Amino acid sequence: MPCNRCRTRHYRCDGKRPRCGRCEQSNKDCAYETGRRFRRSSVQDSFGNDQPWVSLPPQVQFLDESQDVRAYYDSNISSTAQQFSPAGSYGPFNLPRAAQTTLPSITSPTEGLTVLSLLNSESPTQPQQPTPTSSTPYGPHVAPSPTQLSGSSTLVHQQPPGAPVLWPLEHEQEAMLLRHYVDNVALFFDMVDDERHFANHVVQRAKKNSTLMNAILALSARQLSRTTEFDPYVADAYYQRCFQTLIPALNDNVAINEESLLAATIILRLLEEMNSKGPPTITTGLTGPVSIVGSDPQGHLFGTQAIIRAAEQQYAATSGPSFRQAIYWSAFRQELWISLMTQRPFSLHIFPADRSLDPANDQIWATRTIAHLGDVCNFAFGEERHSIARYRQLMDENTAWRSRRPESFDPFFYRHDRDGSGRNFPDIRFHEKTHVMGKQYNTLAHVLLVVHDPTIPQLGPSHKQSRRVVDKMVQEDVRTLCGVANSNPNAWPAKFVACFAIALVGDRFTHQQDQEALCHMLMQTEAVHGFPPISTTKHQLEEAWGWHVN
Q: Taking the alpha carbons of 399, 404, 408, 411 in that order, is the dihedral positive or negative?
């Protein structure tokens, strides 16, 4: 049962006593309601055969905003909420008073899931209004930095649901968030896309699509809040505003085929993975427990698979509009990481993508490694995991890609070890990000194949000897993944591949120097890019390494 604070904010609660994880992190009082019993009734409702029913999405969020209910649950919160009210000395960038949106007080900016009540509440609590003469501390024509914005009042400009966010944007904060998305966030999706569809085409479509624009602003704000002092409440507000139009669209047979809708869904799904601070654990890891990226790995956003399946042939065809292909492969990679972290077969249907070794451009060669990794995940976590024939087929494909790929995939600089210890990450530099990501995906697939080799004896002395051989190969692959990630900073999504590999097989490293280097990779990646969340992964690895024994 969730605690009072998590329930009133409609957050998932881990239910820990005496304080749940969220209350512990924010250093707040944590109280649980006494369970209530309901008297059973013998009355049975019945409906006629002609009773009309309203279709509902797979997940529904119920919000009770009546005064009585809020007063009952918020009696212990109202006294602390006032101290977080926006300061009255800051005006929303000199907007006319009629255009200013007054935000209600919130208990903690890091838990801003009162945003839906903020946008839709019957009578939200009103903070102190700024005086008519107050003005922005940044001046009327100076765009504030993310750090400056975080120091001012939480500012989200309200608009009617579904109203298009037309260019030019009216507010400096939104302009800053959009620029940050293009320059620093879109590469999450465009890592093997030379045309950069999510940085270019998606942004252009967002000009007339409020769902997509709000998704972009939400993700940009969330990434900023995880890497700077930017107010996390802003991301929550755009996130909830996006859902006002996204959820109804998922029930629209026409709208569900829109590419912009799927793009928004994919963007929000990444945001939700970033939101996870304390991911749960499964105990069926490769050699022990591994963390799941995202507190709900199947996705609070149920729309990705629904939309893909609604127009699967359009999105997955090997030929077709390049924008549609970019959307499909972004969704594919998200399902891929979920498969890896939950160690379950691929949920999204894998279509007959190009898996040949025929001559093609570098982008296609890199994309082939993504499809190959999906095949390997299905083998490792599916019903074929004991098939020696299938294993050898996949290993042959993995080796063939490395031997027959274009020469452009060769690194232009390679240094295996700086001091000869064999414990440093190699320095491997590539020309283009497609070359970097192709190397990363192929290497990660090799890690999974080596670990899930069905020919390895399960018992006896041979098992122990085989395990040593496997561990050595895995360690070499992980060092390669980390080395490639560190050597190519402009292709920073390569760090995510390395971090996932560390989460999966990092416990196989036995020397403390290696372990500290892996921990540094995890922490540095999250600190700089806000993803992936590593707190639980790091703790589990430290437990596996015996760091907490003393």
A: positive
